[in-house]
Design brief:
heterodimer; A: mainly alpha; B: mainly alpha
Chain lengths: 144, 185
């Protein structure tokens, strides 16, 4: 069995070494060398033609698109974040509330706002615009 | 008149020296590299399935691509080995374009007049089967097999050229041999 395997290995090796030999022998190496040199020479003399994707205009457009799309995605993410957070707050259904709870709610709504009223002392004459000053002076004239 | 000194044998320039000369604009250095490696490349390409009528074109295209990209050659393997792997890429592209199957040079083998006609026919049939078997291998298996069995390269060299490990190259080779033996029996 081992002899058979060795025989096949040797046969395969011999065949592989022979493979393509005749075709390679028929190759006119000198002609191929001259053809390659001619092509290289022609390429060297031809003006370099950059590929479509290496042109600066395409690169600029592609870069601008990436920036616009990226900025859009970031802006959308920022805008969606607060609304998403608000969306997670549970809404309260009034029908689920008990009578005492409803009463407490009505009382809290009926009370004046928690914001402190602006004191007249907080506002000086220097804070008024010329038009407001004129109006104020006119009202004082009327009163006097 | 002093006696003429015997001419010292001029060592032929190495591949590296020719590559450097080509990069410096010496077109004859490129021509010398083609002369040096064209037959080995043609043998590899024919073994890998290049149809003989297209062989010259594929060889030329391989050299052109190699000279264009020679700046990327870092000496990780010999220039010839690197050239053979580029040839494999060129052949793959050519096959993709042409959608052609391998042309087996059976008729040429039979036209040969030396040796016993029966032996020639048997050898040609074995070669045809090997060609068919190679066509059924994966590209990696086929290239590893050819680089090892046809070109006689070591696994380290094959691995460096094909971007794999010597162990993986060995495995590809053994898979290739197993499948090719099946084709020959």
């Amino acid at each position: 069995m081992k002899d058979d395997a060795t025989f096949h290995d040797a046969k395969l090796q011999e065949l592989a070494q022979r493979l393509g030999t005749r075709a390679a022998e028929r190759l006119d190496v000198e002609r191929t060398a001259q053809a390659v040199v001619t092509r290289l020479h022609a390429e060297a003399r031809a003006p370099a033609r950059p590929s479509v994707w290496s042109q600066p205009a395409w690169l600029k457009i592609a870069a601008a698109l990436v920036i616009v799309v990226g900025a859009g995605a970031v802006a959308r993410g920022v805008r969606q974040a607060p609304s998403g957070a608000a969306g997670s707050v549970e809404t309260v259904d009034l029908s689920d509330m008990s009578a005492p709870q409803l009463r407490a709610l009505l009382e809290s709504v009926g009370q004046p706002g928690t914001q402190e009223p602006v004191s007249s002392q907080d506002v000086g004459l220097e804070d008024l615009s010329p038009a407001q000053l004129r109006t104020l002076l006119a009202s004082l004239d009327i009163q006097t | 008149m002093p006696p003429a000194e015997p001419l010292a044998a001029v060592p032929s320039p190495t591949d590296a020296a020719l590559i450097t000369a080509w990069q410096g604009g010496d077109e004859q250095a490129a021509a010398e590299l083609v002369r040096r490696h064209a037959r080995a490349l043609a043998r590899f390409l024919a073994g890998a399935g290049a149809p003989e009528p297209d062989l010259d074109d594929v060889v030329q295209e391989t050299f052109i691509r190699a000279f264009r990209a020679v700046g990327t050659f870092r000496g990780q393997c010999r220039f010839r080995t690197w050239l053979l792997t580029i040839g494999g890429n060129v052949l793959k592209d050519a096959h993709r374009r042409a959608k052609r199957t391998r042309v087996v040079p059976l008729a040429d083998d039979l036209r040969s007049t030396d040796g016993d006609p029966h032996e020639r026919a048997v050898a040609a049939e074995a070669e045809r089967r090997l060609g068919d078997g190679l066509g059924r291998l994966t590209r990696m298996q086929r290239e590893v097999f050819l680089l090892r069995a046809q070109q006689g390269l070591e696994y380290d060299e094959i691995a460096a050229a094909l971007g794999t490990t010597p162990g993986a190259a060995r495995v590809h080779y053994h898979h290739a041999v197993r499948r090719l033996k099946e084709c020959l029996t």
